[in-house]
Amino acid sequence: MPPRPPQSDSQTSIDPLACFHPVTAEWFRAVFDAPTAPQRMGWPIIARGESALILAPTGTGKTLTAFLWCLDRLMLHPDPSGAKKGCRIVYVSPLKALAVDVERNLRSPLAGIANMARRRGIPFHDPLISVRTGDTPQRERARFRRQPADILITTPESLYLLLTSQAADALRSVDTVIIDEIHALVPTKRGAHLALTLERLQALTQKPIQRIGLSATQRPLEEVARFLGGVETPVENTAGRKSSAEAIDSTSISPSSKLQVDSLPNAAPLIPPESTAWTTEEIAEQSALLYRDVAVVNASILKRLKLKIEVPVEDMARLTAMEELPSGPASQTPRRVSIWNAIHPRLLELIRQRNSTILFVNSRQVAERLAGALNDLAGEPIARAHHGSLASHQRSVIEEQLKAGQIKALCATSTLELGIDMGAVDLVIQIEAPPSVASGMQRIGRAGHSVDAVSEGVLFPKYRADLVACAAVTRAMHDGHIESTRYPRNPLDVLAQQIVAIVAHPPNAPKPARAKKMDAPSLRHFPGARVADRDPDAPGLALATWEGAASAQEPKPEVPVDDLYALVRRAAPFAGLTRASFEGVLDLLSGRYPSDEFAELRPRLTWERVRNVVTARDGAARLAILNAGTI
To answer: CA–CA distance from 88 to each of 42, 85, 149 (Å)?
Structure first.
């Protein structure tokens, strides 16, 4: 649905809720005191249909900033064109647990707006919400294919799988994509994989998609905005382009693109001076590209932190010493002094002083051992471990136990780092220095996860060098110095996987006809066939085999190489991909190897060079689905 014309600038500057339907505005005023900074600054931009990158501290309502306008459109402004119903909003989360958490939190505004509309006698549409992750049952996946929900909450890998399956047809009506915790995706190959997936989605819809990125720790914003928006039209390098020296002199914040930046008066700086240095190759690349417009909403302020570093031993130098055990018949070899014997009692003391505590560690094994040691020391189940290896149901139970006060502590890895609503957490304890300053900000931000609340955290170093790292991270968190983020350029392994998926299931391929069901009398045309579900032990080939053989005779869709190259280069990580590198990947996938050492590799595509088109070989679609993602 095209965006509704916004109110005048004078109205929106006075009341940020002026762009919403009166029912939505009335519900918001009844529930919240006032819009937060990202909401005041972001809603007018989102209402205009522009792509936006929103930077704001944890607990300031970034997710509601992105979703409220979408809910307003879906519920109170139905599409007048009468287009076929389908999925409209796609929310992408880097974590399965965060996806489920957002789905649960959306129920409140949906019910509140619906009740407000009923009281005022205003008709509304009750949108459906579907969650698609690796934990989604097959029954729910089939239901989405038959009856697409208005809002899809998913992960990067699951969105890729949807686009590489028959369920992709349900995504043709998507007009908005929300990417939460985008900072966790940008610097990794997983982010490059997602960038290509977004371009496939836009090619499927055949229209521009509004993209909204959310994060509390992202820097520089210009780099993240380019990743989010992608490239409008890849421009080939020409001989008449400016030289590198001229490009350096004329480079602006966002070369060859318009980047709108809205900031608070006391917002954190976008890019510190030391991070603005670009290499000559990067400047040449940027000057030849036209990025899509992305409005940057910088509502970042320094988070109020109360941090403390505790060393539970008198002398950390003794941790490397060997402890001599008493001699005698039961004597053992000397053992190294462990800091855990001093950490466990102090951790238990801190946990009992608070109502709820999250202890972050850097590995799943440590999380399990720490939870067990605390329970043994306390003599009661006081802590549980939470990490990605747990089943979905078990993770949900553990999270609800902490929220309900049934347990006082969780020993977690990065699974609880990214924005999951864990209720009123009083204290965050970090064992060992966090992997990065951004990770430390996210973890400590779980405590006091609300507007203007103080986040309290305690860091426990495990050895002397770790003490220095903890001190440096603590200073950087107080000053708001987040590491610079740079998305990877041209990861060819990701490109190869996505090319196979695109060719196996092109975005604009005609919908395949359904296979005809054959009854027993019809099998007389196939003497060796049998009905597998009726008589699985009967000799001969199963009916599915015959159907597969019949479908194999159908012509496979052809993808022009030039169109494929243009689609790939619209993703920011592959905007600078050269034609030679692209064709080198096609050579690899089509069986043209540099030596006989690769002869055992099976080609996945057929490249007809005369007509310059590629088609998928048998099994290519199955391979693209079975080997999805980069994790």
So the answer is: 20, 9, 8
Please tell me the predicted confidence (pLDDT) of residue 484: 86
Return the number of other C-beta atoms located less than 10 Å from residue 205's C-beta: 16
Contact of 155 with 180, CB cutoff 8 Å: no
Distant-in-sequence, close-in-space partners of 6: CB < 8 Å, separation ≥ 6: 12, 19, 44, 47, 48
Residue in this structure with the two tokens 């049934």, named with its chain if needed: 406
User: Lowest-confidence range among 46-60, 452-466, 509-523?
Assistant: 509-523
Lowest mean pLDDT, pick from 37-41, 217-221, 510-514, 556-560: 510-514
Q: Is 631 exposed, middle or buried (0-12, 13-18, 19+ CB in 10 A)?
A: exposed
**Which of 98, 33, 23 minimizes the C-alpha distance to 68?**
23
- Which DSSP state fits 291? B
Nearest to 310 by CA among 281, 288, 339, 280: 339
Q: What is the separation of C-alpha 151 from the centre of its chain, rounded to a whole number of angstroms?
A: 16
Beta-carbon contacts of residue 585 (< 8 Å; ≥ 6 apart): 492, 495, 496, 499
pTM to 2 decimal places: 0.78
CB 621: neighbour CB atoms within 10 A? 19
Query: Around Cβ 141, how many Cβ atoms within 10 Å?
Result: 16
Q: Has residue 341 got a pLDDT over 80?
A: yes
Q: How far apart, in whole angstroms, are the C-alpha atoms of residue 19 and residue 25?
A: 9
